[in-house]
């Protein structure tokens, strides 16, 4: 069989790891589609996405459309793509693009549970004991496409989102490589999702990281695990008349009590929580 002519839509480092696995298995995309370059940092320098940098190093044709409009789709048709793989791309795919050739998405949950942008964090927040990876054929309705492959895994009691996401991506790489011959031939078996069982998850905001230490300890610990990389969790203390924003950098659950190990008060370096309390600060 000839090498499949496929495109890859993706943006962050997570997607780069998938690309590395595909290339190592002998599957290189003929086209990369990623988010446009953005100005970032204090120097206001233009930076390309991790996926764009990966493609640039390998001389793979790359498109960075601001919009997936008619002009982009006409150019896409000229590439004679057999199918596309989508991993954390960052844009809604219009029906006119889906009509060109099949598109398959790697999703980090057991669909139909946690359709949406934050499935890893949402599984932890809900106290789910298992999650997994689902590869779906994309339809226009959000994460509602028929399933090509699914694999489950348990969520560790103390596992935080970065570690869980890394494990899920390892599963995703293996799953995707295993089904590439079927995707290339079109000889795939699709299983429709049970839409009545669907749950949704939205985007995360900075404000989501706020906790009240008087709230349920287990729920606060789930927030810590889910938001440890971003936005982080924080609370407020008072010292005299001053209100202090405090980021919780390390914590653990002991019985039914949330134990803070290290914190970072605003304007200060990270320190042991016990040292911070000696300053006279109290939860507000």
From TrEMBL:
Domain Formyl transferase N-terminal, residue spans: 5-178
Entry GO MF terms: methionyl-tRNA formyltransferase activity
Lineage, broadest ranks: Bacteria, Candidatus Kaiseribacteriota
Keyword field: Protein biosynthesis, Transferase
UniProt-recorded name of the protein: Methionyl-tRNA formyltransferase
Pfam families reported for this sequence: Formyl_trans_C, Formyl_trans_N
Reactions mediated catalytically: L-methionyl-tRNA(fMet) + (6R)-10-formyltetrahydrofolate = N-formyl-L-methionyl-tRNA(fMet) + (6S)-5,6,7,8-tetrahydrofolate + H(+)
Function recorded in the entry: Attaches a formyl group to the free amino group of methionyl-tRNA(fMet). The formyl group appears to play a dual role in the initiator identity of N-formylmethionyl-tRNA by promoting its recognition by IF2 and preventing the misappropriation of this tRNA by the elongation apparatus.
Name of the gene: fmt
């Amino acid at each position: 069989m000839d090498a499949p002519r496929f495109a890859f839509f993706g943006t962050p480092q997570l997607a780069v790891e998938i690309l590395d696995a595909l290339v190592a298995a002998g599957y290189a995309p003929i086209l990369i589609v990623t988010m446009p370059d953005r100005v970032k940092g204090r120097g206001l320098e233009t930076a390309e996405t991790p996926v764009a940098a990966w493609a640039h190093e390998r001389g793979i044709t790359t498109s960075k459309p601001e919009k997936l409009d008619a002009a982009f789709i006409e150019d896409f048709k000229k590439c004679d793509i057999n199918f596309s793989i989508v991993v954390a791309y960052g844009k809604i795919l219009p029906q006119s693009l889906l009509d060109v050739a099949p598109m398959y998405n790697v999703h980090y949950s057991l669909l139909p549970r946690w359709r949406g942008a934050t499935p890893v964090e949402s599984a932890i927040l809900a106290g789910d004991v298992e999650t997994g990876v689902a590869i779906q054929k994309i339809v226009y309705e959000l994460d509602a496409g028929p399933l090509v492959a699914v694999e489950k895994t348990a969520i560790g009691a103390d596992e935080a989102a970065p570690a869980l996401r890394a494990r899920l991506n390892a599963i995703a790489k293996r799953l995707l490589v295993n089904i590439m011959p079927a995707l290339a031939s079109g000889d795939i078996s699709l299983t429709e999702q049970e839409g009545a069982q669907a749950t949704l998850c939205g985007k995360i905001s900075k404000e989501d990281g706020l906790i009240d230490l008087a709230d349920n300890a287990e729920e606060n610990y789930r927030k810590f695990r889910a938001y440890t990389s971003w936005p982080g969790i924080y609370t407020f203390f008072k010292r005299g008349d001053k209100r202090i924003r405090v980021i919780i950098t390390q914590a653990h659950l002991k019985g039914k009590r949330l134990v803070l190990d290290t914190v970072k008060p605003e304007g200060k370096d990270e320190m042991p929580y016990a040292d911070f309390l000696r300053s006279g600060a109290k939860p507000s």
